[in-house]
C-alpha cells in the first residue's frame, strides 16, 4: 500500500545515536526501512559490519508517539590508504527516510549529525555514491556542500549510473593530485 506523505510533521521527532544495546530492538527496523528502497536487500552481515565498528556514526529519527523508526543514517570512518599520505575518510553507506515523512528535513538533520560526528573524529573528507536520478538525495547533499567528484557509469545492479560525491573537511593541498581524490570504487559489499 502506498504511504501518504504527511503535509506537516505531527510532532517533533526524537534523534538518537545507535548503540549496541539497541541492536535487538532497532536492527530489524533499520533493515526494514532501508530494504524498502533497494532493488536487492543487503544481508544482515553488511549491517553488522558497519554497526559493530561504527555504531557511533549511526543516527536514527524516531516518532515519539510510538517510537517507530522514520529515518536512519549509517556510516564508517577509516584511513584511506591509497592516498599518500593516507587520509581519514568518512563514508555514508546508507540513508533512508520513511516515505510518509520525506520532505521535512529529516535526512538533512541525520546527515548533519553524521558529518559533525565524523568531524569530531578528525575526518578529512566524506564520500558517498548516489544514483544520478536520485534528485532528493543529490539536492540535499549538494546543499550541504558535497561536490560531484566522479560519474560511475552503470554502477548499480539495475544498470543505473551514480555520482561519487565528496565533502572536503580540511583545506586541500594545492600540490595534491586531483586524480587521487575520492576515486576508488565503493567499499560496500552486498
Ligand atoms: C533521499 C531521502 C533520504 C531524503 O529524505 P528527506 O528527509 O525527504 O530529505 P530532506 O527533506 O532533508 O531533503 C530532501 C531534499 O530533496 C527535495 N526533494 C524531495 N523530493 C523531491 C523530488 N521528488 N524532486 C525534487 N526534489 C525533491 C526536498 O525539497 C529537499 O531539498 P530542499 O531542502 O533543497 O528543498 C529520501 O528521499 C529517501 O529515503 N529516499 C530513498 C532512499 C535513498 O534514496 N537514500 C539516499 C541514497 S544516497
UniProtKB/TrEMBL annotation:
Keywords for this protein: Acyltransferase, Transferase
Cellular compartments per GO CC: NatC complex
Native source organism of the sequence: Cladorrhinum samala
InterPro entries: Acyl_CoA_acyltransferase, GNAT_dom, NAA30-like
Annotated N-acetyltransferase domain residues: 16-170
Molecular function as annotated in GO: protein-N-terminal amino-acid acetyltransferase activity
Domain of life, source organism: Eukaryota
UniProt-listed PROSITE patterns: GNAT
Family: Belongs to the acetyltransferase family. MAK3 subfamily.
Protein's UniProt keywords contain Acyltransferase: yes
Pfam families per the UniProt record, alphabetical: Acetyltransf_1
The protein's name in its UniProt record: N-terminal acetyltransferase c complex catalytic subunit mak3
Amino acid at each position: 500500500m502506498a504511504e501518504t506523505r504527511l503535509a506537516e510533521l505531527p510532532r517533533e521527532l526524537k534523534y538518537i545515536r545507535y548503540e549496541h544495546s539497541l541492536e535487538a530492538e532497532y536492527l530489524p527496523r533499520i533493515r526494514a526501512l532501508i530494504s524498502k528502497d533497494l532493488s536487492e536487500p543487503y544481508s544482515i552481515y553488511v549491517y553488522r559490519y558497519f554497526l559493530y565498528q561504527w555504531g557511533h556514526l549511526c543516527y536514527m529519527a524516531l516518532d515519539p508517539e510510538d517510537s517507530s523508526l522514520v529515518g536512519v543514517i549509517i556510516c564508517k570512518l577509516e584511513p584511506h590508504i591509497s592516498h599518500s599520505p593516507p587520509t581519514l575518510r568518512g563514508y555514508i553507506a546508507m540513508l533512508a527516510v520513511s516515505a510518509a515523512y520525506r520532505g521535512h528535513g529529516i535526512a538533512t538533520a541525520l546527515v548533519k549529525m553524521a558529518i559533525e560526528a565524523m568531524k569530531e573524529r578528525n575526518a578529512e573528507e566524506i564520500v558517498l555514491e548516489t544514483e544520478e536520478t536520485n534528485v532528493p538525495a543529490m539536492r540535499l547533499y549538494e546543499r550541504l556542500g558535497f561536490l560531484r567528484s566522479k560519474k560511475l557509469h552503470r554502477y548499480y545492479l539495475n544498470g543505473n549510473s551514480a555520482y561519487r560525491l565528496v565533502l572536503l573537511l580540511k583545506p586541500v593541498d594545492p600540490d595534491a593530485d586531483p586524480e587521487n581524490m575520492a576515486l576508488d570504487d565503493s567499499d560496500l559489499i552486498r
